[in-house]
Amino acid sequence: MYVDVDGRYYRRGAKLELDVYVHDEKVYFMEIKSHGEIEDVEWFKEKSDIVKKIIGKEPEKLIFIAVNMDKEAVERAKQLYIDLLWNHN
Description:
The protein has helices at about 40-55, 70-80, and strands at about 1-5, 15, 20-25, 25-35, 60-70, 85. The protein has about 90 residues and is of the alpha/beta class. It has one domain.
C-alpha cells in the first residue's frame, strides 16, 4: 500500500493499493472483487495509472478478476483494455 502523504500523485493522504502486484521481469496489475461494477473498473484503471507513475514501470497487463460482473463493467473494461477473468455463464 502506498500512502500519498503530500498529494504528489493523487489526493493528499490517499491510500493506493493493488490487490496483487507481480514482478517477474514483467509487471502485472490485478484487482480482485467478488462483484465487478463499472466504478470498480474505472477506479482500477485510474489507480493503475497512478501506481505506474509511482514505480516508473509500464504494466504488461491490467487484469480484473471477479466472480460476477455487471454488463456495463464488462464493456468498460474492454474499452480500457483491461483483461477480465470472471464467471460469465
